Amino acid sequence: MRKGWPPSSRTGHRSSVGSRARCQHCFHTPLFSSFSLAFRSIPDMNANLFALFESRFPADRTACCIETHDGLYYSWDDLDRATAKLANLLASLHLPEGARVAVQVEKSPEALFLYLATLRAGYVYLPLNTAYQEAEIDYFVGNAEPSVVVCSSKNFGWVSKVAFRHGVNHVFTLDDDRSGSLLSRAAGKPDAFETVARQDDDLAAILYTSGTTGRSKGAMLTHRNLASNAQTLHEFWGWRSDDVLLHMLPIFHVHGLFVASHGALLAGAKMIWAPRLDMAQVLKFLPRCTVMMGVPTYYVRMLQEPRFDDDTCRRMRLFVSGSAPLLLETFDAFRERTGHTILERYGMSETVMLVSNPYDAALGERIGGTVGMPLPGVSVRVVDGEGQPCTPGEIGNVEVKGPNVFKGYWRMPEKTREEFTEDGWFKTGDVGRFGGAIASQAGERAVPDNYLTIVGRSKDLIISGGYNVYPKEIESFIDEMPGVAESAVIGVPHADFGEAVVAVVVRKPGADIDEAALIGTLKGRIANFKVPKRVHVVDELPRNTMGKVQKNVLREQFAVL
Ligand code: MLC
Ligand code: AMP
Fold this sequence. Notes:
- By secondary structure, the protein is α/β, with parallel strands linked by helices.
- The protein has a domain at about 460-555: ANL, C-terminal domain (GMP Synthetase, Chain A, domain 3, 2-Layer Sandwich).
- Helices cover about 30% and strands about 25% of the residues.
- The longest helix is centred in the first third of the chain and has 17 residues, at about 75-90.
- Adenosine monophosphate binds next to strand 16, strand 22 and strand 25.
């Protein structure tokens, strides 16, 4: 078996949640008895999330922690030593307190170690989608002012220019074949490191989420946010040390970086690590796995593979879906094909996970079309336009509170204030209801009052293949193009991605707009998943009496791609 970097070795319950309860205005699931003990802040205990992971490493550190799709094995010792070397490298740079480490690299175990080393050294991790191009990276680096930027060698030319322009002193490269200046520099560093002490409220990561105004906002997540959520999910989803997670998600968003990786790390469980969703690898590795997580597109594609069946899933105990709505037809077809009921959950970059269908059947069934019940310790309420609580079955705005809710938007106090109510609830921008009924082919079924269903969004947001696209951002790029008078960007149903981005463009008098040329120009400027799949040219946009563009009319008119 080949060695990883810098490997020293090769290796070849159910939860105890109480009954549901309802407070006056919101639903919450009571804390686990064990969780509440573990979670209460213990004075003098290092609140650094890495310290929590360290405390859960398996006794046998030669056991396999990560097996890669191409046959590398990394033990827990390897993880410890690699993160120590990288943390020593970061420490040797004498970065200021709270320094940000911005990272745009392909997925690899080393990229995960860099995240963990950043935590370990007490700094703040800032992951960036690999699809982002120069204009996008320029904004993030300018806004976050990181002290360190790590990028792929192929992008070093332009990323380093952007970084140096913004005064970043340290730019390293890291590639997915264990090469790059980051690892060369870290290789000579000691392989032991005492995890830096952090407080609960210290920042661990900043995750940029696009904004309805077109400007991305950095959601500041603390060690407490991440640790509390990881511990809650550990209990709620019944993680076990003998679990094997098939990890195929990207590691620059909440789903792949936190929900999936933290789950395995906290359980001391092994991960089988693949760079992306690939059906050949699902067929090869899933039979050895017990847990898998994906956005709905993953399940749609698995069902399209005729060789994927119950035998492929023979060791599986849990399939989790999230980041976008899972269609009831996918939920039903998956159960029919495999005998497994996908567990759908709901979360956000600002809050990590909020609501989940139960793992433990004693708590209830997993109901397709719903996202389940608030996680223990998380409070969720649905309110009307005046902020008054909705009754079960009534649709309203979803608001949340809990130890998982972020600290605010990076250097945007105004925006932060706007997104919280006066009594401290975070406004998710999602629209939903507790209880009510779900319509399926088999007819209507009643939903228990503590189950949440997301029915839409009050924010103008498209979720395509699990990635968020804010129309405003795309419109501002299109509006700058020659010949364009104005534009409206909408999401339309898409069999693979759930929603697809479509642009409706009004041309200036006498101008000619070519769909392919417009798409081609956008491809050179913004992340590929944000680029409209179609561009429709119209004479004018439909508006209501207030002059607001009626996107619902456009969504109907251009529903078919
Ligand atoms: C790729 N493409 C997409 C796309 N991904 N288009 C729209 N939406 C997407 N999500 C386009 C590319 O631009 C390219 O177009 C073509 O599809 C093929 O690209 P690819 O890279 O080969 O695609 P593929 O590998 O098939 O990726 C699709 C995918 C991927 C669904 C597997 O997008 C993915 O892994 N999504 C997961 C996103 C995720 O992790 N979300 C979690 C966010 S956290 P062209 O024209 O260039 O050929 C969050 C909070 C929470 O939301 O609750 O979890
Ligand atoms: P992000 O900003 O990338 O973290 O995306 C968060 C958004 O994804 C939420 O506000 C929801 O709109 C959406 N989302 C996440 N999980 C689900 C789900 N299971 N069903 C519907 N929408 C979801």
